[in-house]
Design brief:
19 strands, Diaminopimelate Epimerase, Chain A, domain 1, single chain, 5-stranded mixed sheet, 5-stranded parallel sheet, 588 residues, alpha/beta
C-alpha cells in the first residue's frame, strides 16, 4: 500500500498507544458518494468509485503470466494421454488450497489422468522442492510434476528432475531471482513476478496462481476462448479455495486478489468443494456471511495446524474428497491439533518474551529479535513470531536449535524487507526463502550468534527509532453526524479489508466523554464509553483490550479519537458505534 503522506505537522501526533499518520488533504472528491467515503477513497489510489462492487470480469487474462500457457498446454496433453501427474504442494494453507484447485481441474478436464499428491513434511523435510522427493515420485510412476507455492529457487532439484525424465512445471509466487538466467531449468516456470514478467499484478499467492492456471486450462479445452458451462461452474466452486489461500497467506487485498476474495467469500458456504463448505459451516455457526476474519482466524489456522503439528496431507484430502464421513473425521482431527498448536504457541511466546526482556532485545539498540532454543516446535515458531511482532513491533526470527542446525521462521514489520535483510546476511545462513514479510531459514548452530549480530546491525541501520512505535494510520477526518448508517454501509463496500487495503479509520476531533467508562468482558479488560460533540450527536465507543486505560478516560474528558465505525443491530434497532484504534486526550 502506498504510504499516506504526513501533513505539515513537523512532529507526528501521538495517542495513548501509537504514533499517528494523518492523511493528506483530499483533492477532488467523488461527488456521488457520502463525503466521508469520498475522502477515504481519495487516499486509496488503487480503488475507484467503480470498484465498490468488484466484478469477475476485472480479473486479468491469465495468459499474461510468463509460461502459464505452456504449463496449461503441457498439463492438458499429459492428462489426456493418461499420464501420471504429481501435484507437489507446500504444506501451508496457500499450498494446500492451490494443490486442491489443480487436482479438481485436472480431474475434471482429464478424467483418464492418474493423479498423485505430494506434500513435504514440515519437520522431516522442510519447505521447498527436494530432489529426494522427486526421486520418490519417479519411483511411483510420475511423468509430470507440477509444483504449487514452491519451486522458484529449486535450481538443483530441477536438474535432477530432468535426469529422472520428469517433466517439471513450477508455479510459485515467492521472491524470484533477479535474473531470468537464474530461474530453474524446468518445462515451465509460472510466476507473475518473474524478472521478465509484464503481468499487471504480482501480488497473487500460490493458490491465486493455481486458479489462473486452472482458468486457462478450462479455456483451452473450451471453444472460442471460453470455458464450457461445466468448467465455468467448477471454476466458481474453486474461487473459495483461492480466497482462503489469499487471506491465509496475508496477500495484498487489492487488484485481482480483492476480486477473488470478494466472490470466494460469497460462495464459501455453498461451494461444490464439499470439505471446504463443511469446514466453513462448522467454524462459523452464526447465520451470516463468511468474513476475511473467519478465513484468517478460524478456517486457516485449522488447516495450518495439520501441517504445523503433523502432516498436511489430510488437509488436501479434506479439500478433494466427497466422503462425508472422512470429512468429519479430518475436521475433528483439525480441531484437536489446533488446540495442541495453540498450547505449544503460548509456551513458545511466553518463553521468547521472557528471553527478549532478559536480553534487552526490546530496547532501542536492538531493532530486530533473533532467538534460538531447544524444544521450540519448528512448525509453530512462525506464528509465535507474529505474536512477538505484535508485542514489540520488531522484525522477529525464532528458531528451534537441534544439535548442529537451527531451523525457524521470521516475520517482519511494515516497511522492512525481512527477505532482503536475511539476504544481506546470507553468508551467515545455510539457506532461506520467502518474501518481504515472512521467511523460513536454516542457520548453523555455531553461527547463530554471528547471524544475530549481523541481522540486528542491518535492522538498526534500516529501521528508524520512531518505527519501533506502532503506527496508527488514519484515512480521513470525520464528524459524528457524517458517520451515519448510509456512510458506514458504503464504506464496507471498499472491502474486503486486509493487507494493503486496511479497514478504514476515522479521526473525530474534540468529542467529550458523556458517561463514565464501563469495563466489559469476563476479565474486565474491554472498555465501553459514550462521547458527544456538544451538538446533540453521540456515539458509543468500544475499546477492545483497552480496560487498562479506563483511569485516563474519565467522564467529561475531551478526546481526539481514531476509530473504525461499525453498524450494530440490537433488538431490531441499528446504530453506528466506533471501535477505538487510539485516542489523544485533548483536554484534561
Amino acid at each position: 500500500m502506498p504510504p499516506i503522506a504526513p501533513t505539515a505537522e513537523k512532529i507526528a501526533p501521538r495517542g495513548l498507544t501509537r504514533r499517528w499518520r494523518l492523511p493528506e488533504p483530499a483533492g477532488a472528491l467523488e461527488a456521488a458518494l457520502p463525503p466521508v467515503v469520498a475522502r477515504v477513497l481519495a487516499g486509496r489510489p488503487w480503488l475507484s468509485a467503480g470498484d465498490l462492487e468488484p466484478k469477475l470480469t476485472g480479473l486479468h487474462d491469465p495468459s499474461g503470466i510468463p509460461d502459464l500457457d505452456s504449463a496449461a498446454g503441457a498439463l492438458l496433453e499429459a492428462g489426456r494421454a493418461g499420464q501420471t501427474i504429481a501435484i507437489y504442494g507446500d504444506y501451508d494453507v496457500d499450498g494446500t488450497t492451490g494443490s486442491a484447485i489443480l487436482n479438481h481441474i485436472i480431474a475434471h478436464l482429464c478424467p483418464t489422468a492418474r493423479l498423485l499428491h505430494y506434500v513435504p513434511h514440515r519437520l522431516a523435510e522442510g519447505y521447498g522442492v527436494h530432489s529426494t522427493a522427486l526421486e520418490a515420485l519417479a519411483d511411483r510412476g510420475a511423468d509430470v510434476v507440477v509444483t504449487v507455492d514452491c519451486g522458484i529457487t529449486a535450481v538443483g532439484p530441477a536438474l535432477r528432475a530432468r535426469e529422472l525424465g520428469l517433466q517439471l512445471i513450477i508455479t510459485d509466487h515467492h521472491n524470484p531471482p533477479e535474473s531470468v538466467d537464474d530461474l530453474p531449468k524446468a518445462e515451465a516456470v509460472v510466476h507473475p513476478g518473474r524478472p521478465d514478467s509484464a503481468y499487471p499484478f504480482d501480488g497473487l499467492c500460490g493458490a491465486g496462481v493455481a486458479f489462473k492456471l486452472a482458468w486457462r486450462m478450462a479455456t483451452l479445452v473450451g471453444t472460442g476462448g471460453r470455458a464450457d458451462a461445466a468448467a465455468r461452474a467448477l471454476l466458481l466452486d474453486l474461487l473459495p479455495l483461492a480466497a482462503l489461500g489469499t487471506v491465509a497467506d496475508v496477500s495484498p487485498l487489492v487488484d485481482e486478489n480483492r476480486i477473488l476474495v470478494t466472490h470466494g467469500l460469497a460462495l464459501m458456504r455453498r461451494t461444490g468443494v464439499v470439505g471446504l463448505g463443511h469446514l466453513a459451516n462448522r467454524c462459523v455457526t452464526e447465520e451470516r456471511a463468511i468474513s476475511v476474519g473467519d478465513l484468517g482466524f478460524r478456517l486457516g489456522p485449522r488447516i495450518n495446524a495439520l501441517g504445523r503439528v503433523d502432516s498436511a496431507s489430510a488437509a488436501f484430502d479434506l479439500l478433494t474428497t466427497e466422503d462425508n464421513h472422512r470429512i468429519a473425521e479430518i475436521c475433528d482431527e483439525m480441531d484437536e491439533l489446533n488446540q495442541k498448536r495453540q498450547s505449544i504457541e503460548r509456551r513458545i511466546v511466553d518463553e521468547a518474551c521472557a528471553e527478549v526482556e532478559r536480553l534487552g532485545m526490546d530496547q532501542g539498540g536492538h531493532r530486530a529479535i533473533v532467538l534460538a532454543r531447544e524444544g521450540w516446535h519448528p512448525g509453530v515458531v512462525g506464528i509465535a513470531c507474529s505474536r512477538l511482532v505484535e508485542r514489540y513491533n520488531r522484525p522477529t526470527i525464532l528458531m528451534q536449535r537441534d544439535s548442529d542446525t537451527c531451523k525457524g521462521s521470521g516475520r517482519s514489520i511494515p516497511g522492512f524487507n525481512l527477505h532482503g535483510a536475511v539476504g544481506a546476511c546470507e553468508h551467515e545462513v545455510l539457506g532461506f526463502g520467502g518474501h518481504n514479510a515472512a521467511i523460513g531459514l536454516t542457520v548453523s548452530s555455531e553461527r547463530v550468534e554471528a547471524f544475530t549480530e549481523a541481522l540486528v546491525s542491518h535492522a538498526n541501520e534500516h529501521i528508524a527509532i520512531d518505527d519501533l512505535t506502532p503506527e496508527c494510520r488514519i484515512d480521513a477526518e470525520a464528524t459524528l453526524p457524517e458517520l451515519n448508517e448510509t456512510s458506514v454501509r458504503t464504506l464496507e463496500k471498499l472491502g474486503p479489508f486486509g493487507r494493503s487495503n486496511p479497514t478504514p479509520r476515522m479521526l473525530v476531533r474534540g468529542v467529550r466523554i458523556s458517561q463514565p467508562p464501563t469495563l466489559m468482558g469476563s476479565r474486565q479488560n474491554h472498555l465501553s464509553l459514550f462521547v458527544g460533540d456538544g451538538a446533540g450527536n453521540t456515539m458509543k465507543l468500544i475499546g477492545w483490550s483497552w480496560g487498562q486505560h479506563a483511569e485516563a478516560l474519565r467522564n467529561g474528558t475531551t478526546l481526539d479519537v481514531v476509530l473504525t465505525p461499525r453498524v450494530e443491530e440490537f433488538r431490531g434497532r441499528r446504530s453506528v458505534r466506533g471501535e477505538i484504534a487510539d485516542v489523544r486526550i485533548a483536554e484534561a
